[in-house]
Amino acid sequence: MTTRVTVVGGGIAGLAAAWEAVQRGAEVTVLEASDRLGGKIETAPIDGAPVEAGPDAFLARVPAAVQLCEELGLSSSLVSPAVGRALVWSNGRLRPLPEAMLLGVPTGVVGVVRSGLLSPLGMARASLDLVLPATPADGDESVASLVGRRLGREVVERLVEPLVGGINAGVADELSADAVVPQIVAAARAHRSIVVGARRQRAAAAGGPVFLTPRDGLSALVGRLVERLQAAGAAVHTGAAVDSLDDVDGAVVLAVPAGQVAGLLRRRAPDAADELAAIRYASVALTTFTYPVDAVPRREASGFLVPRRSGRLITAASFATTKWPHWSLPGQVVLRVSAGRAGDERALRLDDDTLVARLHEELVELAGVGGGPVTARVHRWVDGFPQYAVGHLDRVARIERALPAGVALAGAAYRGLGIPACIQQGRAAAAHLVPST
Ligand SMILES: Cc1cc2nc3c(=O)[nH]c(=O)nc-3n(C[C@H](O)[C@H](O)[C@H](O)COP(=O)(O)OP(=O)(O)OC[C@H]3O[C@@H](n4cnc5c(N)ncnc54)[C@H](O)[C@@H]3O)c2cc1C
User: Fold this and answer.
1) Within a domain: residue 54?
2) Is the pTM of this model over 0.85?
3) Whose CA is nearest to atom 15 of ligand 1?
4) 230 domain residue, yes or no
5) Rounded to the nearest whole angstrom, what is the distance from the C-alpha of residue 109 to the centroid of ligand 1?
6) Listed residue (320, 363, 321) closest to 339, CA to CA
7) For 90-130, what is each residue's pLDDT tens digit?
8) Residue 8: predicted pLDDT
């Protein structure tokens, strides 16, 4: 008998679940609340250039996204950033982030010394990692606790938090090490020194591009996926918000944010609903500026990060046309600027015009931008980033155990918020509901 699967949510996790279910011979319906598929993925072209309003690339080393692109015939369209190096704002100027790092944990001394990011005292404290006895953790802990215990607070504030906090719109003191930096946890478990462990991990992962994206933008991946789903007989509906599971047929993949899932499961699985409601989210405003080419000093870097303790609105900015030359516009450069993180909603409270003016002022100060922008476009990702608090993976396991039969979860709220992790979770949810014959 054919299994019927309803997928609630047409973001990348839901679409990947639908794809996997179709491969397994299920009869599939996708229900998406908004009038657009892709969720956080949204290519919003400027004068034909495939500029992204949300994510701009996926990690190549976690194979799920690369593999999906292969299945959809998109491999030959994948491009990688033209430059990989990033800068960080520190002590009044932008300084290069050392290249030898794993998620902010230095794997070599020379780059850190040259970058000038750490004070002599901070360097000395970080070096203690090489001689300190092993300090095993008892269960999950925060990213700041794991790294700080070995390398000191400066490494946390000046290297790890700008990077890890930037990726997650979070705060290193609150984010779960097990859920957010499993590579560093593994390094710390396998070696007395976290630096030595991180160096081995980095060496093992070396080779090939780190990030990839379809040349026509990430929405091309969504578009191709939907096209193939429909060709395989799946029904894909937009403007179809689901507010109760009573009307939904067959097995269900819930691929919507955790708060929505909590509402949908409240009656049938109240314990799971309580745990789901406890997953917090952070909001981010992503502003895309275009400037005349000569207004922005040329830099051979993909962008820069701004540590939380600087008090600035900007958390990260990318020199987008340096990073992605195929976004080029005649005579103009594109800058993408993020503002807002867990516990910092200042940017979200400003209206668009004020936000643009304040961010421009900071770009003048931090990046030496001269002259005003040609255009500026604000995209607000309210509750865009789930926050994995300490103990997050245990919470997810408890939620999964409390789910009713025939219901599976997928998406950014659970086991990784990057695109590959969402694809992986979508496919795993479908595989759970539709075992292969
Ligand atoms: C600004 C930004 C930049 C990012 N950058 C990167 C990056 O560079 N690389 C990377 O790998 N990741 C990045 N991410 C993370 C990644 O994009 C997301 O975590 C991922 O796309 C989330 O996919 P999802 O399917 O879990 O959820 P979503 O994309 O949120 O999809 C959920 C869908 O469910 C729908 N929905 C909600 N409620 C209902 C309902 N009741 N009924 C029906 N449908 C409903 C929503 O409309 C939405 O379409 C970024 C995220 C943001 C916000």
Assistant:
1) no
2) yes
3) 418
4) yes
5) 38
6) 363
7) 989 999 998 888 888 988 877 788 888 999 999 999 999 99
8) 98
How many domains are there within the chain? 3
**Quick one: pLDDT at residue 113?**
81
CA distances (Å), origin 172, targets 73, 208, 323: 39, 29, 26
Please check the confidence at residue 224 and state whether its pLDDT lies above 80.
yes
Helix or strand holding residue 86 (H, E):
strand 86-90
What value does the CA radius of gyration of the chain take, rounded to a whole number of Å? 22
Same domain, 264 and 289: no
222 in any annotated domain: yes
Is 375 domain-assigned?
yes
pLDDT at 298: 79
Closest ligand 1 atom, residue 425 Cα:
26
Using a 6 Å CB cutoff, which residues line ligand 1? 8-14, 31-34, 39-41, 54-58, 241-242, 255-257, 260, 284, 286, 381, 384, 411-412, 417-419, 422
235 and 380 assigned to the same domain: no
Q: Any alpha helices (H) in 54-193, and if so which ranges?
A: 64-71, 109-115, 120-127, 143-151, 153-155, 166-168, 177-180, 182-190
Per the structure, the complete domain to which residue 30 belongs is given by 4-41+218-279+388-433
CATH number of the domain residue 393 falls in: 3.50.50.60
Instruction: Identify the weakest region by mean pLDDT among 298-312, 343-357, 365-379.
Output: 298-312
> Could you tell me if 379 and 392 lie in one domain?
no
